[in-house]
Amino acid sequence: MLKQIEGSRAVAEAVALCRPDVICAYPISPQTHIVEGLGEMVKAGAIAPCEFINVESEFAAMSVAIGASAAGARSYTATASQGLLFMVEAVYNASGLGLPIVMTVANRAIGAPINIWNDHSDAVSQRDSGWLQLFAETNQEAADLHIQAFRIAEELSLPVMVCMDGFILTHAYERVDLPTQEMVDAFLPPYAPRQVLDPGEPVTIGTMVGPEAFTEVRYLAHEKQRQALELMPAVAAEFRAAFGRDSGGLVRGYRLDDAETVVIAMGSVLGTLKDTVDELRDAGVNIGVLGVVSFRPFPSAAVRAALQSVRRLVVLEKYFALGSGGVLAADVQMALGKNGGEIYSVIAGLGGRPITKKSLRGLLEMAVRDELVQLTFLDLDRTLVAKQLARERQTRRSGPAAESILRDVHGTMARNEGKKS
Amino acid sequence: MSFQPVKFYQTGTFTVGNRLLAPEQRSVQAATSRRNSLNSGHRACQGCGEALGARYAIDAAMEATGNRMVVVNATGCLEVFSTPYPETSWQIPWIHSLFGNAPAVATGVAAALKVKRLKGLLGDVRVVAQGGDGGTTDIGFGCLSGMFERNDDVFYICYDNGGYMNTGVQRSSATPPAARTATTEAVGPTPGHAFGQGKFVPAIAMAHDIPYVATATVADLRDLEYKVRKAMTFRGARYLHILVPCPLGWGAASKDTLRIARLAKETGVFPVFEAESGELTGSSKIRHVLPVEEYLRPQKRFAHLFGPKPDVAAIARLQALANRNIRKYRLLDEEAL
Amino acid sequence: MDKPFAITLDPGSSLANRTGSWRTERPVYVDRLPPCNNACPAGEDIQGWLYHAESGDYEAAWRHLTRDNPFPAIMGRVCYHSCETACNRGRLDEAVGINAVERFLGDEAIRRGWQFAKPETETGKHVLIVGAGPAGMSAAYHLRRSGHRVTVHEAGPLLGGMMRFGIPKYRLPRDVLDAEMRRVIDMGVEVVLNSKVGNLLATMQDGRFDAAFLAVGAHIGKRASIPAGTVARILDAVSVLRSMEGEEKPLLGRRVVVYGGGNTAIDVARTARRMGAEPIIVYRRTRDKMPAHDLEVEEALQEGVMIKWLSTIRQAGESSITVEKMVLDESGFPQPTGEFETLEADSVVLALGQDVDLGLLDGVPGLEFVDGVVKVDGQMMTGHPGVFAGGDMVPTDRNITVGVGHGKKAARHIDAWLRGTTYVAPPKHPLATFERLNTWYYSDAPQTVRPVLDIIRRQSTFEEVQGGLDETNALFEARRCLSCGNCFECDNCYGVCPDNAVIKLGPGQRFEINYDYCKGCGLCAAECPCGAIDMVPEDG
Question: Phi and psi (nearest 5°) for C57?
């Protein structure tokens, strides 16, 4: 059924269609509307039986989900940013124990400085947590991915993080086609846990494992991720057959035919990128886009297959590893090995900085001319950072960089205001 | 008084069992059919109070629930010594997640079991969570308070041995004043743990107005079992705080575990009581009140108080704390006064 | 369940980890000798019979008791219960009232008519017993139990010896005495009353006895050389007490002076009091040095008997005596002071001990005597093979319980001797000392007070002074037993083991240590209430 609906609401309704048993929630922007919606539905009896638990922290949220999942309940929670970091210990634990929890991450930057706006630093920081991490391009895909996520999680006994860009998606009203309960029920069977806390068949879950078996445990967990790479396209295909839409899978190409240059990205920026690529194609540039849906496991083979004859790659990501560079870029480079073409790593959209078509077009045109440096920060105010760096060279104790920069930003704004008037 | 000891050793008293008692009056621990929820082969130190307390409590809970329960365990000695791969000592459905989240995991288990019950997939299955004092009063305290505040249907048991024993005897918020730990060494002008720090979580649990809060020691099995049984008659959040001496951390002989726990109660150092909905409803009376020295002396962690120049001031402060417990929790039989 | 590798395990699998290898000391169950048993002159297994009484199985208790002592109703009245003095519970609150429970069992047996079983087989041996006192009748009982034919020759007209002629009625009612004597006779013991054995060897030969046990007692009152006028009335205590059993009661007068400090002195004084006299005991030392049982001294004082401490009689006149005050020297012996005092006295009763009438041993070869009594070896045999002796006629403490004990001991050796073997007593366990107990586990429960006859009746009648326990308080009293040194299956070891390494074997079967898992922490031993577990170092 088509609805003009807020992204958060669409996700909430999609989750509700998955018949969750236990939902635990702790509020953090921009995730709040999702759990508010679910809370309301549980309280109204629209999801029943279901326990909606207002926990005291994200750490508790994930812990409640762990307990619920281990006891055989389909468990869901949502978080973002600091919240995700606050629950990290439990995030790793959930995957280590092999518990098929589904969690929405309404992607948001991590402080300090505190910032409520979108980038991918929260989710990407958890790239090694053992969770499957799926990135939604649109609200439609966000909704669809949740339905697939429960299916994948429960088949593999692994937790799945569905990542959607905070505000850009969560707070955007768009047309979303939400399936009927019958369709979802047909697609998603009731949860049959692989292991469960059951007085009828007692087990010990969560042992201490020493050097004698830890490597094997980790290897098997890695193998599980490989199995996910096989399962996810199958589930996406099944989903397409049942719901008539392309959602999920590992990667999704756009105008890759005879593309010499390909931009790789995750999440909602793919929409802007596609528009930009359309314009460039119109201008005769052989360029395409590769959207990565499954960030973890990283679909190296699928990426390789999609980029066979590509000369150069621009990996655009809303996160980077401080002191190293693009994380997705590194993964892509690893996937392609020696045979890959030139790879340009571009960091964009940090802390909610808009990624405009204009900037993208300029960036890609430079890329096509091979004028990009290895690591580019899109729309970086070079004057500002240069000034701060100079100040720091002068005085060791120049104060917190963020505040200094803010002073400069405001100074600049004030000057601009002055110019205007 | 919460538990009336029957007179004469042959008909009740303080022993575990008794050939002359009717079977239903005997302790769970006296039965050959007892569950041994924590089985032999665990790697607890010799004379471990926590291993004993855990078997007492969990066996009693198993008995009270007809073996229909699930246990959630915080990280700590109990978890480590009971479940090193490839062996587990537990004979019950048991899960360990993290150090600081046992109450929340238990909430999740309880929620799941409730939904399964509502779906008709499962009968009534109860949830017990347990952890040491570090996992309960420090790192797990947020989750504990949250679980209390929501009044989730979880029975939480804290095994208090007054420190982080698993990591090598460091100070916790349950470490008593003056006690030596690896992070409150017996050196300097005020050796041992500081006075005026730490917290008594049973009182904080009471402040949450949860249905049932109780304390017990591993030395009084019948009282402990009574409290577990009673706790299982309530729905909602319940808390039992059990004093379990640690021979290693306290520097005491392994055979003295129960003696020291008894002395903690008899000196008033550790008040044994129960409370319902935030109100004190009963105290286990001290039989023969003793000075705190009796409790302190057998423990090396207090040895610095008894050197060539005994620290009379510190001992007096500890005595004052015990006296306060005696007044506050009415630990002396009024008739006997 | 499709369990994830290593993370999820099957329950209870730690049994594969044998933690017993950590051990440096091992707990071992032991049995120790309870102090009551150790102190009992009759060798009763007090703890053993209390154990049955605790369960309310009084007949089993009585049968257990009478394996060693056939006279619980008598013992429960006249025994000075050194068991209670030794009782560890005395250091906790008050000793267990063993004597009271024993009496309860004895009375219960009489009331219910419990009988001793007759021997199943007869040995064909015939034993002569001379004297139907505590030692003689005890030996008769034990020998009969072993299947021997037993004939008792008693010089007097009634059974009981000193139990009848030395113990006043107010302490031992005669129906009780008769009942317990009768029960022994009913086993098939032959008794010949009024039959004084004048020549032992002749009697043995005539009766074709295979062995003899002599227990004639000591009832010739010792005399002291008191300068006395012809008119002074001086009697001996044994005669006075004996004549109380006859038709003619002794004439003592109003002011009766009893000279001596033993239990017999007290018995005579209390008897005199009941006959309306005003007795005064003259004793040369102080109360704490007095050989009489303090409880009896106390009762005598309550009844109005006066005691003149630190005094000796120097002269006895027609109606008065002269006493000299004494002082104790550094070694505790009384020394004269030269201070004299006169007391009114209608009679003087000497209670200075008794001598043995050894006439029947004239001409028996091989015998040795010391201080007027017969020497016996460790098997109670005199220097003449086949002739055994016990009770007051051998070197010993003189009281009923010792006599009963001699009877048992002699019977064992006679039995062995008749079978051509030697009886070797099983080795005694080490003592169960108070320090080995963990008294925390015993509730506070002071001794049950037996009802005591009110003072007016005690001063005027010969009714029994001490009442008995009823069933409720006998049970209470029995259950105060701490079971020192011997497992009573309290389940403490089973309960307190942090490693579940104690195996409970079921009722009456006690426990076993599972050394596969026992880490040797010692908690079971420390928490054993009765000290029945030792920690023993592991070898190497």
Answer: -95, 85
Q: Which two tokens stand for residue B54?
A: 């855990």
Cβ–Cβ under 8 Å, residues C210 and C125? yes
Domain residue extents for chain C:
13-31+487-537, 37-115+443-478, 126-219+355-418, 227-352
Q: Are A315 and A332 in contact (CB under 8 A)?
A: yes
Smallest Cβ–Cβ distance between A203 and the set C5, C6, C9 belongs to C9
Q: What parts of chain C have a pLDDT lower than 70? A: 1, 229-232, 445-450, 453-454, 457, 540
Residues A164-218: pLDDT tens digits? 999 999 999 999 999 999 999 999 999 999 999 999 999 999 999 999 999 999 9
Q: Residue B278 contacts by C-beta under 8 Å, 6 or more apart in sequence?
A: B206, B207, B208, B209, B210, B213
Find the angle CA(C476)-CA(C479)-CA(C483) to the nearest 5 degrees. 160
C-beta separation of C255 from C346 below 8 A: yes
From the list B68, B108, B113, which residue is nearest A63 (CB)? B108
Q: Is C277 helix (H, G, I), strand (E, B) or coil?
A: coil
Instruction: Kindly tell me the burial class for residue A183, based on how many C-beta atoms sit within 10 Å of its own C-beta (0-12, 13-18, 19 or more).
Output: middle
3-state SS assignment for residue A154: helix
CATH fold for domain C227-352: FAD/NAD(P)-binding domain (3.50.50)
Domain at A251-377: CATH architecture: 3-Layer(aba) Sandwich (3.40)
Span A2-243: which CATH code? 3.40.50.970
Please report the pLDDT score of residue C472 as a whole number. 76
Tokens found for residue A318? 């809303």
Higher pLDDT, C3 or B306: B306
CA distance, residue A115 to nearest chain B CA (Å): 25
d(CA B248, CA B240) in angstroms, rounded, equals 23
The alpha carbon of A51 is separated from its chain's Cα centroid by a whole number of angstroms, namely 26
Paired sense of beta strands C354-355 and C220-221, if any: antiparallel
Domain that residue B63 falls in? 25-336
**A60–B107 C-beta distance less than 8 A:** yes
Q: Is the N-terminal amide bond of A297 cis, ω within 30° of 0?
A: yes
Of the candidates A30, A35, A128, A123, the residue with the CA atom closest to the CA atom of residue A76:
A35
- The question of ipTM being above 0.85 is answered as yes
Tell me how many degrees the CA angle B64-B65-B69 measures, rounded to the nearest 5: 130
- Alpha-carbon torsion B177, B179, B183, B184, what sign? positive
Q: Which chains touch C (3 or more CB pairs under 8 A)?
A: A, B
Model's pTM, two decimal places? Answer: 0.90
Residue range(s) in chain A whose domain bears CATH number 3.40.50.920: 251-377
B82 in reach of chain C (CB within 8 A):
yes
Domain with CATH 3.40.50.970 in chain A: 2-243
